[in-house]
Amino acid sequence: MLAGTGTTQAQIQKMISLSGKIANHGTYTEIYLDSLGPQEAVNVTLAPVAADGSFTIKTLVLKPDIYKLRLADDNFIFLIISPGENITLQAAGPKLDFNVKTSGSSQTMDLYTTMNAIAPYNLRIDSLNEQYRTVVNTAKQDSLLPLIISAIVNAENARKNEIASSIRKNPASLAWLFFMDKFDISADYEVMDILDRGLYSAYPRNVYVGQLHKQVAEERRLGIGQEAPEITLSNPEGKMVSLSSLRGNIVLIDFWASWCGPCRKENPNVVRLYGKYHSRGFEVFSVSLDKTREAWIKAIADDHLTWTHVSDLGYWKSAPALLYGVTSIPFTLLLDRNGKIIAKKLRGENLEQKLAELLK
Hints:
By secondary structure, the chain is α+β, with helices and mostly antiparallel strands. It has helices at 2-13, 106-135, 141-169, 189-202, 207-222, 261-277, 293-302, 319-323, 348-358; strands at 15-22, 30-36, 41-48, 54-60, 65-72, 75-81, 86-91, 101-103, 232-234, 240-242, 250-256, 282-288, 308-310, 331-335, 341-344.
């Protein structure tokens, strides 16, 4: 009896209450609470929506997680619910959106407070993108596009700083998972590291936290300042060549393939930069994800690529590609003279600017 009572008490402690009112609920008569699984949402429970728009949901929640509260498949909001919470919600309706007012769930409040805080930046960016579309391919594009692009970058950075400030204050909130598309793991590693440490310590079994943790762990291994792992493979002549043999130079590791259109398009730029900076200590170490030696050798000749080339012809299962976590190409890493990573994913003008800075 005691064991049974204890279990019941534990379940009661994990029951949540979600009550609210949708001022204009239109023709909706039911509201649904779904849990978000790795593949698809699963309905947990539903409740009637009264004539005045009020509803109450009570259900068992075993762990903090992300849920979807919906009136229909295309009309929903997200909630972050923890066991035992008593949540209240007010919405104008009939369309649910981020202007919903909630209390009783701190992580849900993190989510919607931040969404409202960055809304002005979103509007600014949308407006600038519209200006860009209006100006591009017109007589004014040369004078106006640089200004518009600069304004977009400034607005995106301001939006990112707004979110990052909130992350630093409370890194253990699942709310920040909704804003990951605003960050780059490499460029924004400092704040991503803070977020990962906060979330993974609090929610190590959450599938979305696990995905972020894997990405950040990979960045810790291959981040700026880390020594690039050794690569030793055959060159086109069959001789084994190691990345470390180029130590003492500024080295561009270039993952590419003959079948990769963007790679081939970038090759003339790298050829030009190699010709310009090779005498100053610039080397290229190209790792091909080709499947056949013939295609690999032909592309090297056709594109006049006169630097170091290696490949195991393993396609996406290429050992260096797996080692470096390469999921798309072209993919580049720039190494300093000691073999440490100083930049990633540089192409075109960005690569040239970095080389000009390093090899004055």
